[in-house]
Fold:
Amino acid sequence: MCVSLSTGLKYNSAKCCIFFGGVDQTGRKDLKNLTGFAEENLSFRYLGIPMSSKRLSAQAYDNLIDKINHWSSRLLSYAGKLLLVKSVTFALTNYWMQWNNRESQVAWSTISMPKKNGGLNIIDLDIWNTVTLLKLLWNLSDKADSLWEQWIHTYYVKNQNIMDIEGTTNASCIVKEILNQRGCVRGRSWWGDMLHQDRFKMSKIYTELLRDVPQVPWKSLFYGNLARPRAKINLWLSCNERLGTKSRLYRFGMVDNPKCCFCSEEETQSHLLFDCVGTKGIWMKVLEWLQIQHIPSGWTQEMKWIIQKTKGKGARAKILKLATTKSIYEIWRYRNGKCFGNNVNAQKTYDTIIDSIVYRD
Ligand SMILES: [Zn+2]
Structure:
């Protein structure tokens, strides 16, 4: 009312609504009569995100999940999905997470690790969530002076050091989450360095937090690998022992038997790559073509040998890396073709592998 009188601007009561907190029924009635606004309840959406004074429920994320599902991601290849996640999904979820800095409900596993840690280099949203909370902790360490920080200082910090305060059982879930992050930065030199900076660098903190994740021995196979993305994804699945072999599908009750389609043994990944009579010969011929003297054994031994042989940046290491990636990919396609009764054979598979090495197709 006062704003209207002093500025001459008039509000449209049909387009306004009012939210109450700590106001009794009589007060609410009076204010509604005075303003003509309709009463609304939390949570409402603002820029697509539910506004709530409490932690967001799983249902609050339905809208976001629906949006992602509608992008027909089922029709995309694994490499296509990876690009979709990297380019769009991260931006969306990051926006949701940074908004009022609520905890992400989305769980991410190995896939989100950097390549050296065995992942596909997607941002890990759990770690990123920690980073966004650390940004708030950094703000509260006398780094920012917004109304929110002042409020937290008045009610919780009360002239103490933010790293020392205790007894915040009545604090909101956001404040508790921020204070919970103190454990992962206490005594860390990079946190001390960041406190001396004028700007909080999220990517730097993210990199520091990732240092705690163990690296995988096969990381080098993905550096300077000239194979196409779908072949590299297939190699990555193999390295994580996640190829959908019959033995694996049988364990999940998805097929009737775990038998290999080339012989009568159980089709484990170790058997298929490269112990099976149906596939061992192809890999041996590829090695012969590369003029490498080596008798293949099971997957674990073979991986150790390949990792050893592809160390360094020389042309031979690069070609063996490419040959390995393409061989695993084409052998897997050969196996799929055989399982589904397609017109496939070992010679064709070998020819495709050699062609793809020569033409880098
Ligand atoms: Zn077999």
